[in-house]
Design brief:
Radius of gyration: 17 Å
Mean pLDDT: 80
Strand order of the largest sheet: 1-2
Helix content: 25-40%
Strand content: under 5%
Distance between the termini: 37 Å
Number of helices: 6
Oligomer: single chain
Number of domains: 2
């Protein structure tokens, strides 16, 4: 399978395509309309591939149709995202999979985020730790816009009682 990697100018925070002249250097710190007028509390969100076409199909097959063997391909895509120039000098302490609500996990039969986090951890030697606990069921986000997604996820997670933020750096 051949999938074209992202190469166009992207927002430094959300990895969204940004319209820009072709001679703009890739190191320029661009901002998309989604974050241009907001305070952002992280350095960068990157994507190795655009979530369209065959990439979207593969992710949906993996996530919704229990094609668990596709986790290896998707994990390679995640690993490729770590090669992004915005992340090259970053040191990561831990990979934290997003937990599913127990009802959703029973429905799917697995947590795709945990499977991917474990593979990414194995490929990068960054420890994978289940630091978050899902404390509230949320509806599917597939048809929600950005503000609805934020509201849907509000207070849905908490740090597990056995972990502290200080513990993350010394896992």
């Amino acid at each position: 399978m051949v999938v074209k990697q992202r190469s166009s100018a992207s927002c430094r925070h959300f990895a969204r395509h940004v319209q820009s002249p072709s001679k703009v250097p890739s190191t320029l710190r661009l901002r998309c309309a989604n974050c241009a007028h907001r305070t952002i509390h992280f350095d960068a969100a990157v994507a190795a591939y655009r979530g369209r076409g065959i990439v979207r199909d593969v992710i949906h097959e993996f996530k919704y149709n229990r094609q668990i063997h596709l986790r290896h391909l998707v994990a390679r895509w995640l690993r490729a995202a770590l090669d992004d120039e915005r992340l090259r000098d970053c040191q990561f302490d831990v990979i934290v999979p997003v937990p599913l609500h127990p009802a959703r996990q029973r429905e799917r039969g697995f947590n795709q985020a945990s499977l991917l986090a474990e593979l990414l951890s194995a490929h990068t030697s960054i420890p994978c730790r289940p630091l978050l606990k899902r404390i509230r069921y949320t509806t599917t986000q597939t048809a929600l816009d950005r503000s609805e997604r934020m509201e849907n996820l509000h207070n849905a997670f908490r740090l597990r009682k056995t972990w502290t933020c200080e513990a993350c750096a010394c896992c």
